[in-house]
Amino acid sequence: MLFVILAPLALAAVAFAAPSQVRRPLALLVGGLLHLAGVAFLWVTRPAPALGGWLEFDPLARVVLPMTSVLFAVCAVYAQGYLKRRPDRDNRIFVGGLLVLLSAMTVVALSQHLGLLWVAIELTTLSTAPLIYFDKTARSLEAAWKYLLVCSLGIALALLGTFFFALAGAGPGGPRSLLLADLTRAGAALSSPWIRAGFVFLLVGYGTKMGLAPLHSWKPDAYGEAPGILGALLAGGVTSVGFISLARVVRVCHAAGESAFARDALVGLGLLSMALAAVFMIGQRDFKRMLAYSSVEHMGILTLGLGLGGAAAAGAMFHTVNNGLTKGVLFLAAGNLHRSYGSKRVDDVRGAARRLPISGPLFLAGFLAITGSPPFSPFFSEFAILNGALGGGRYVVGALFLVFLSIIFVGMGATVLKIVQGDPAGAPEVKAHGDSWLTAAPPLVLMALVLLLGLFLPQGLKSVFDAAAARVGG
Amino acid sequence: MSAWTEMVFILVVVLDFFLLASSRLRAVIRAAAAQGALLAVLPLLLATHATELGHVLALSIGAFVVKGVVIPWLLMWAIREAAIRREVEPIVGFIPSLILGGVGVALAFAFSSAMPLPIPEKHAFIVPTALSTVWTGLLLVVSRRKAVTQVIGFLVLENGVFVFGLLLSDFMPTMVEAGVLLDLFAAVFVMGIVMFHINREFSSLDTEKLSALKD
Amino acid sequence: MTILLSLAYLALFLVVPPLLPGVVNRVKSRLAGRQGPPVWQLYADLARLARKGAVYSRTTTWVFRAGPVVGLAAVATAGLVMAFGGAPAALSFAGDFVLFAYLLGLARFATVLAALDTGSSFEGMGAAREVTFSSLAEPALFLCLMTLARATGSISLTGMLGPALPLAWGHAAPALLLCAIALFVVALAENARIPVDDPNTHLELTMIHEVMVLDHSGPDLALILYGASLKLFLFGALFVRLILGFSVQGAAGVLVFLAGLVGFAALVGIIESTMARLRLVRVPQLLVGASVLSAFGLVLLLR
Amino acid sequence: MSLALVIAGLALTSCSGLASLALRRAPELAQRAASAVLVAGATLGVAGAATTLWTGGATEVHARWSVPGGSLALRLDALAALFLLPVFALPAAGSVYGIAYFPQARRGAQAVRLQLLYGLVTGAMALVVVAANAMAFLAAWEVMALSGFLLVFTEHEKQDAQRAAFVYLTATHVGTLALFALFSVLGSAAGSFDFGRIAQAGLAATPGVFLLALGGFGIKAGLMPLHFWLPGAHAAAPSHVSAIMSGVLLKTGLYGLLRVTGLFAAPPAWWGLALLVAGAVSAVLGVAFALAQHDLKRLLAYHSVENVGIIAMGLGLALVGRAVGDPALAVLGFAGGALHVVNHALFKALLFLGAGAVDHACGTRELDRLGGLARAMPFTAGLFLLGAVAISGLPPLNGFVSEWLVYLGSLRALSSAAPVVAWTALAAPALALVGGLAAACFAKVVGTVFLGSPRSDLETRPHEAPRAMLAPMAALAAACVVIGLFPALLLPALHHASAAWARLTPAASDTAARDAISAARAVTAAAAGFLAAAGLLASWRRRRARGAPTAETWGCGYTRPTPRMQYTGSSFAEMLTLRFGWAFFPRARVDPPRGAFPHHAAFSSHVPDTVLDVALVPVLRSASWGAEHVRRLHRGQVQWQALLVGLALVTLLAWRFLWW
């Protein structure tokens, strides 16, 4: 288990030390593949908890880690093509930072200790902030600053919340531990007010990291200015592990008998995120920011599913995977469009289907997938969440869910279609940045995965989602 | 002994007020440094078992070095390098800040008296002090214009969290505490780097310049 | 016996109609203090036209030539389902009056297309008016027939106009009366009579039916005129049977029916002599009014 | 066996486009191959469907599918078979037409994409119809909708195609979301997403279910006022695409309504009444809007709204019949509606293909620029005229038969003693009005496009359509004639389909069906009478008119008429459209003649879609404006962002601790 954490770290060190601009990106590829292999090994062998139970390949990790690993590997391939096109930029920090990020995400996914979880999440923030500044423009600098400050703030609150949890279990008979297993076992022995307060702080803290509205404000800035590859990893990987962290917190709440308290807050925040995303997506002129709001929306959907519990929670787990992969498609394709047109304004970009015969249609397909069109896999997970709402008699929640989905579809569709259709003649163009195999194939692979998961969901995966939902409990 | 401890807590809160009221950047940084140094003393004052002395000592020294020395020095260096104006430049005036701070402290005390303390043997001032300091940190981040003051706000907020952490020092693994401190240091370090770039890019640390990104 | 009667009526349907316009004109002339043409004038006209040659416009196609043929064939076929004088129709089935109405629609469609085929703006104008008024008359006609159907409990013309009709007058007289009035208005509109259209006008701008057939000549015109008289006969038959809804058996029944038709024609003549043609924009109001009347009749029965 | 045929057909048609992709070095061959595969698949499918339809009964297969709630359940009953006929037949005709209309040799990649999607949409529609599990249904449904969208998207360089594609996509997706809710409610109540299990569960027929179905399927079917996406989409797509979109894609919405209402043993009467009213409104307003159009394809598209309305009226009557336990009403209404599904598919496809031929030959679809095409393209004109007669519901063609069955249904209701049922008879006058208006509208179309003389100089010289385009049109026309003349042949099949849907006791519905069959034989007799009379008269006329002289059209004394003086389509319809002034918001541009010797004067008017352009677009625009203003509240400063975090924390704490 330590291998999947340490291998990327070691490669990061190699990357920092390596002198060659050209060869350095290979470290990404090696790291991604090693990690993928390691995760596959974990998946097959189902190892026992490591480090005194601090790390465990539990069902939640089984949901998020393979997806993250696949996403990273694909992005690593993409990076080969991408960085080749940016020879002017020093990629030392970029490559190293990404590898540290991978390691940190892995720790978050595996961590069973709330303190360790917190440290690793903070590390994901710190390792990515400099990468947002990769373009070295004033705008990207601003985005980096906002990302750093707002996320750090949120995370600091999460630390306080973590301490609250610890305090809740510090009384006589309490576990006096931050290990999830101990906390859940303690159950009702935990001090209820401190669990509640801790939940609120943790929700705000990890919600900031996930980008739930109204804590999302860093997201459009960061996603808008970061390179597409980083956007993909942030929106697909970091937010997903953030969600898993939140799910672990919720698990403690359930165990402490505070389900009702947690649920209302989760459902409310989830719906608020969808609503706000809808408002900000109507008439959005910048397609990368649009994707950021889409990410806000989907974090809302995940939170909603988690709040509804039961089948909806299983749907949310499934959706974590779907959202991660689809966001990968969208951000990588958007990155290609951005490179090719030299602009991410809707007014400048048109006729993408013609100019970029792979990335353009992929962007459209990704849009259709992320908005829940069957037979792409996000449909099945969103449908499961809807089922959870309507089947549980939460008709208002279900109705709002659908209304927000439709508004978002209209808003997003208007932007996406404007980009994809039309005649590209006359639109700004950066020569030699058309589709190449290294940049077009990775999102294509992800898209194929999204479609495949929709058409055929292996029984093994399905049981993992159910197990993960059961793990969260409630 | 207990009176001393109480005194330290009160000083921490007074420093919170000072941070909110001060108009000089250097003074603010010094106050934050002083607060950090004070906090470093607390674990020693609160330690109950001689057996864990090594752990407590390490924590105290670590906190002192990071919060009381390195980070303030870093910030001093930053404002000297940036050659910026030495005023704080608040968005919300000093008096409203102070009043808000006062309200926050009151709320913090009210909140902590409403919450049962599972470990009654711990000092009753820990929770309200921690929350007051967190609140002050939030206020500083939100109501000050310069990037440096925002970093100080973040630092103060972390100080508050640190105070809270004292409640748990009995069973909090050293690794986590070290990680937290290290993360804090790394965060401020990265923030410092970004500030350096901001200063170079905009010739200022005024965050008003940082509002090009919006919908 | 009934079959013979039906066949006799069918024969009458093919022979008598040209008489009706004659009667109308005769009545109009008399009321205007003139002698007027003989009542069988139309027979003579038809015979003359059938022998004459035709002239075709260069813009026209086969559609123009097919118009009169289809128009006449459709109207004649409509006679198959009509229960003249209450005797069973030659062909009777559930919903046959739908076929009746739609065959008249087919005839109109053919005439209108033939008019448009000439490319003349006047004929286009007439065609536009024709389709406008007839489509507004359609609901009125259906409402009338449905009132009749509801009152008699039958949904074929044979049943509606057969022996059940006198009984219906017994229990649904007000509805049937409203229906009769509306039906008369529809008959006037469908047959291009005053107050909807003036068959004797000499200004193309104001005509409806007449202007549509300006370019037809010779045998084509004969078909059209004959067809128009058949249509008048059909509506007359419907109206007369509705009004004279009592049972008279056998040959006497035929006589009563014919007398009623003459009366119908005379009534049309009287109206044409005493009323002016409505302004075109007022016509839809008349037709919608007829629809409302007959709808009221139906509502009376549905309640 | 028959299901296997259908599945084989489905698979073949779905993949047919691959041929044009694989052989793209030899485009002509590729297209022919793709078309041949599609036609072969369609033939298999039609064979399978026809067998089931005429024998009754049902076959089904079940396979596991691992997605949550999903199973690959396919079921072919008479109802599905009925819809499968046009689903397979029309695309086959369309793809042959496409060989000449949208040649791959000239259109290249665009044509390849079109053919891929053409096959895919066919397969997806077939899958929608045979799917017996909600997840499979929804998946097929969306594949169908998305391929439809991409087909509209074919010529996406054009401005109006872009707008149409966007409106179509959003409309169809919103509809799909309603269906998500519908099946979610049904599935969670029944504990399974298999239609069979849902039907057995005996669920309560709640208003929510029906409204969701009406909304979700109504958008697809184009029921007024949910039709707003339809005119633009059908006008913007290539004609053979419009033909299947209008001919069959819309019908899947009606199929869905039937499927869902069929899941309930006794739907309440108000379901039927609601559908009836929606149908009547669609029919009347649809034809009214059609009258006001001057773009040939937009006009035809509005006629789809009208015809869907007529179908909905029939189905509404049938629902009422089921609700009150009147099998005859159920059978007649259903037979009328269902037969109209097939009929409308045939003649609307014929008309769209004809419109495509006109567009192909003249380069414009603007009615008021055309004229006199019957001379240049006599076959197209004749076939189009036949379609026009059929769609106007005039005897002796198929349109009449189905409308007549709907009339029979409403007359059946008329004689009912139950007041609620009797009132539904008021559908008949509405249908009569629709019939009159439709005839008026098609008189306008045929008259303006094919008759008279050309109204303007076209860029190209009109020419007769090539054989590949005429042949499918002729086939469709032949089907219209056959159904029109021999309706009695189809009624047993319709009876099977209605039994599959309505769960009737056979005895009661058999009587009704037998009566209808004998009446249909009488219709055949009347049609024969008409044809005989017309034949006799025609042969007499032909002998008399031989060698008749020709001359100018009589100009009523005006000696220098020009073609531009002809009545235009707009002026032809003006008197009627005035009647619907309350529903129209025409936009006119007037450049009046000025001075004693005016040089230039112009007038143009356009009737936009009331729902889309007058209601939805302004609403959306103001929503967008509102969103813009909300967004302004969101400042770019980092302090504001931090404040949001703090506020969220405080608010959550207050909410959860003070409220709790």
Task: Characterize the structure shown.
The complex is a heterotetramer of chains A (474), B (215), C (303) and D (660). Chain B has seven helices and no strands. Chain B has helices at 2-21, 25-46, 53-82, 94-114, 126-143, 147-165, 174-202. The longest helix of chain B is centred in the N-terminal third of the chain and has 30 residues, at 53-82. Chain C is 72% helix and 1% strand. Chain C has one domain (2-302). Chain C is globular and about 55 Å long. Chain D is mainly alpha-helical. Helix content of chain D is 73%, strand content 4%. Chain D is built from 25 helices and five strands. The radius of gyration of chain D is 26 Å and the shape is globular. The mean pLDDT of chain D is 90. Classes of the chains: A mainly alpha (474), B mainly alpha (215), C mainly alpha (303), D mainly alpha (660). Chains in contact: A-B, A-D, B-D, C-D. At the C-D interface, strand 1, helix 4, helix 5, helix 6 and helix 10 of C face helix 16, helix 17, helix 18, helix 19 and helix 22 of D. Strand 1 of chain C pairs parallel with strand 3 (550-551) of chain D, so a sheet runs across the interface.
Question: How far apart, in Å, are the first and last alpha carbons of chain D?
Answer: 63 Å
| Low-pLDDT windows of residues of chain B | none
Q: Hey, roughly how much beta strand do the residues of chain B contain? A: under 5%
SS elements, strand count of chain B: 0
Helical segment tally of chain B?
7
Task: Give the termini separation of chain B.
Answer: 56 Å
What is the helix fraction of residues of chain B, given as a range? over 70%
Structural class of chain D: mainly alpha
